[in-house]
Structures are given as C-alpha cells and as structure tokens.
Design a protein that fits this description.
The protein is of the alpha/beta class. It folds into 2 domains: 255 residues, UDP-N-acetylmuramoyl-L-alanine:D-glutamate ligase (3-Layer(aba) Sandwich); 152 residues, Alpha-Beta Complex (Protein-Tyrosine Phosphatase, Chain A), CATH 3.90.190. It is built from 16 helices and 15 strands. The strands form 2 sheets. It has a 9-stranded mixed sheet, sandwiched between helices. β12, α11 and β13 form a beta-alpha-beta unit.
Amino acid sequence: MDIVKKLIIKIISAEARWALRRWRARVVGITGSVGKSSAKEAIAMVLESRFRVRKSNKSYNSEIGLSLAVLGRTTAWRSWSGWICNIAQGLQEVHTKHPPEILVLEMGVDRPQDMDRLLGIVRPDIAVITAIGELPVHVEFFPDAEDIAREKSKLARQLAASGWAVLNADDPIVHTMKEKTNASILTYGFSDSADLVASNYKISKDGIALKVDYKGASVPVRLHEVYGKQQAYAALATIAVVTLFDMNLVEAAQALQRYKPLPGRLRHIEGIKNSFILDDTYNASPLATAAAFDVLQELPAKRKIVVFGDMLELGKYAIEAHQKVGTLAKFADYLITVGPRAKFAAESAVASGMTQKNVLWFATAQEAASFLKECIKENDMILIKGSQSMRMERVVEEIMAHPEQASELLCRQDDYWKNKK
C-alpha cells in the first residue's frame, strides 16, 4: 500500500513539475501557522478579475495536495480508479492550450523537510508568510517552536533576487525573515514600520472595516460578514500581492468586497432561537484560538458561549497551551469543552475565576451539541472551535437554524468525512 501511494505521489508530482515548466505561470506560494487559506482565497479572488488564476483546492498544501492543486485535480482518497483518472487527466492538463497565468498555492509544513519536498515541486516567484506565533500549530514533530519557524522560512530563503517576499510585519518571527532572503521585500500590518499599513480597524456584526495606506495612497476596505484581525491580515496580504501585478489599491479594495471566508473559518451562521454562531471549526491552534476569542469579546451579544475542542499536534506543549486557553476564555458566560486535552482548559477557566457551573466538559462533539441545544437562548453568540479530528462542525450542524444548508456552509461535508467516525 505504501509503495503504491509513494508511486502515485511521484507520478503526480512529476506531472506538476512538467506542467510548471511548460506553462511558465507566475507562482504565489503561501505559508504560515494561521491564515494561509484565507489569504489564498482572497488573493486568488482579486487576481481573477484580471488573470487566469488557479488556486489550491480547499487546503491542499501537502506534497500530494500541492501537486494536485497545480494540475487542478482533487484527491481520490482510497479510490485506485480515481487516482488513475487523476494521472491521466493530469497528463492532459500539462498540455492544455489555456494554462493558468498565475498559481496561488498553499504550502504547509507538518514535519521537518516538508518545505524541501514542496520546493522540489514548485519554486514560487512570490512568497507570502502570514503568521507563525510563539507556539505554532503542527509543532508536535519538531524539537521546538523555532524549528518549525525555520522550516517555514525556507520559502523566503529560496526566492530568487527577482522575487518578492511578502511578510507580516506584526509577527516578530515572520518579520525577521526579511534578513533571510535575497528577494525584494514588501511588509504589511498594523505597525507603522510596515510598507503597507492598516489603521482605523473596526468590527461589528456587519463585518470589519479598516483603512490601508501604501506609498502615499489611502483606501478604505470593508468586508461584509467577515470577522477578526486575522481576516484583516488576509486582506492586507492580498493588497500587497496584487500591487505586484500592477493592480492599484482602489481596484483591490473594491474586489475584496466580494470576499467570503471559507467554511469553518470564523464564518457567521444563523443559529436556532435567533442565536449568532461563529463557526471556526476548520482547525485550531493557540494563535488562531486567541484570535477567535478576541473577535467574540469585541462583538456585542446578550450572552457569549465558547465551545472549545482539543487542539492537536502540540506535543509537549499541549497541557500548557490548553490551560492558557482556559485563562483566556474567562470572559465568556459559558465555556463548553470537548475532548481530553480541553479538560485542562476547563480546569484553568475555573481556577481563573469562572463560575464552575458555567464550565462544562464533554467527551464528544455530539454530547456537547445535545447540551448546547437546550442551553441556547435568544440572541446568544456562540463561538465553536477545535482541531479537525474533533469534528466540531457537528456541533454547528446541530444548532444551526437551517441544517439543510450544512453541505454548503460547513467544512468537512464530502463523503469521506461524512462517513468517517
């Protein structure tokens, strides 16, 4: 089985490299611990107004996912006939008469040397590094947090002198990467030291608004039903990248008005009893969880409920990270935790001053959903977050006002995930 899998990866990757040599498309590669998918979606959407653009499907950012993204194919999961079809159609795609002019690709890192393998397939012309944070996601297989940052920084290091590194100036680890590349540098953030500077950030139930200044020009940016500074950073990264393709600030800001977050990325969903759900169930890391809590704190609501599932792949940092989440969650009216690691968050929340009867723990998402359905009152705001394997989208499905829209609005709705226990 492993031999066949490796052979498939080798063939698909070879086709992707061949396609890139033939097409000569410009490549935007995106990495970071949070914000990759949001940045990818926003960048691709704006560039599509002028160019033929292909982007990573969903979060295809592994070795096989990256190759499939280049070729415009999707995973066949465990279907051998599906993989044979992918190989055949990938070969046809290599010779397409209308190849993409720009590829916008996520490049993820789970283990040491992952970035080397990805760079063996594609060498981006523009590298976007979103945010790393003090405790990145996927740190489990690295000796320490610095090592995963070093692995991700390879994306900036490999750039040619003619390339561009687009860096988050507000993330100290990312900002230092400007010293590690020969490429030109363009930084973005809320810091005055950034090249592209955001200010006047405001958030409401309608979405977020901010002002962006670059090279003496200024433009207001408004994102409808888009929440949090992490999405503001996606907008900033987008404006930074598209200026490298000779698009101006006004053009970018107008295009960004059409942007909508992917399912499970802090997306507003109508809940039962006229409640307001913030669905952030795609995945969870300490940095992304803290950012989601910031959003919940900033938005007005009668009661605020946090439903929090385990954060995985944190290795030796797991207990400490979950305890910190519990401390951060003390602003909420209720904290509902799911999974063995999240129990540390529950205990920490009580130790930090939350009323014990308002802090609950459940073993599974289904159990938490059953309680939540009875607990919710009109005008409650509910943030739901957890790592992929915790299947926290099942909680959202149980309390959303229109469950018939689950396949359209929620993450992990394909047959593979729906049939997985």
